[in-house]
Amino acid sequence: MKRAKRIEFHGLPWSRDVIELKKGLNLISADPAARLGLNVEELTGMFEDQVSAVIWIDPETGRFRSYVPFPGNPLGETPITPGLGYIVIARGDAAAKFVRSEVERTTGYIPIGYHPPTILQAPNGERPESDLIKMENAVQMEGEVKAVHDGDTISVLLDGGEEEIVRLVGINAPEINGPDGNPEPFAMEAKSFVDKILAKRVTLLMSSDERFQRDDYNRLLCVVICDGENLNAALLSEGLASRMFFRNNMLNFPAWEDLEVEARSHRKGIWSNLSSRGIVLNEINPNPGSVRDSQGEFLELYNMNDYPVNIGGWRLITTSKEIALPETVIPGHGYLILARTEEGTFRSIYASTPSDVTILRLKGLSLVNTYSPAEGLVLWLKDNVGWIQDGLVYRLSWDKKGANGTDRTLERRCPDVINVGDSSIGGGDDANWDPSLEPFGTPGLPNSVGPPQIGDVSLNGQITAYDASLILRYILGYEDLHMIQIRSADVDENGRVEREDAAIILRRIVGLIRP
What we know:
This protein is of the alpha+beta class. It is built from eleven helices and 28 strands.
């Protein structure tokens, strides 16, 4: 019997900024190149003639494609697809490091791991390194911090002699005086984080457009820089604040959202108790088709526990409002419908809703369809202590899938996969939320889309080389996969994710034979 040839794949833990190749076969995620809109030819060109071939699966046909660098090869014009795995055959070691909008070529080993985001340096007349601020739309002031009120509000004595209350723009820290009069989780930690700038000199960056300079309480809306540190961004990065995005021409919102996604992914601060109570957002209909929004909009909560949970005192926070939830019990593995309309009208529209499922009309509920900036379309679910239990940034741009104005709802595939953000910023929410298979969805019933098949680690509905690369990276030290993803990667179902699982998926996908 002919002995199978042993094939070794290289692959380092996933990085937002680096693609590294080693001599031989490499299984990589090319997301950094996809973010820049590069094609396959441009990707290979980054490695200075070290690439012999690139192999990938066409996401439309499911067939393999291979590109060999030579002039005029039409496959070189194929755009890099985010979330897709690529097999790269390299002649030697090489790496490309992405520095914001540019590509920096290098050789040798580049250590990859999580590092705190780059902090905006104090302005010095040059454009700052960070892409968080659109400096062409900002004006600058100087002053001394006279008081710290909480994690996002300070008083500053400006150099002109006036004292102003300054609200840190783009973020929202936990309340020191919560709804029950007690501090919300991490409210005191956020204030302590800001206390370090008391009596110090600060630079304030504010929009040059007067419409975005003050809030409804006449507070200045500013980014605060102290000792070279962007305080707003630091709070977001450390999990001591969540985003609070309102229209402002000074902020580059996707970059700020990226900071929050990092904090949520690492369960920092206010994100450390996500889903700890077992109640999650499970289905939403933000833009019905055949009925008015005021009649058809709803969101569904699901109880993952074996026992009932009373959500009295919990709060639902939408883009525009914060709504207190009344005493209501969700049965174990049961559902609660939060609707804009009264129960009779809701049941006439969603006739399949079981009669024993509670439908709660929430006054003031509105699932906004469009918003500026788009990153501000959010839902937060807080428990009665103030912990964020779940959250979702829903984007109707996801709806190349078909849930925008079609009567189909957005359903969650895996309730215990934590929402952190969509794939454009390193999350996977758009992969874990899909349109219902039938119009009007499944309120009060198990979702029609269901969990992914075993081995579909990336939750995109098909097993690809990217799934194998995720497993390999997990084995090689990347330990931030969500628990359901790890379980779905346990292909041989022995309770562990190990090399055998990776080998099975690689064998299924690319025909490799493991000796």
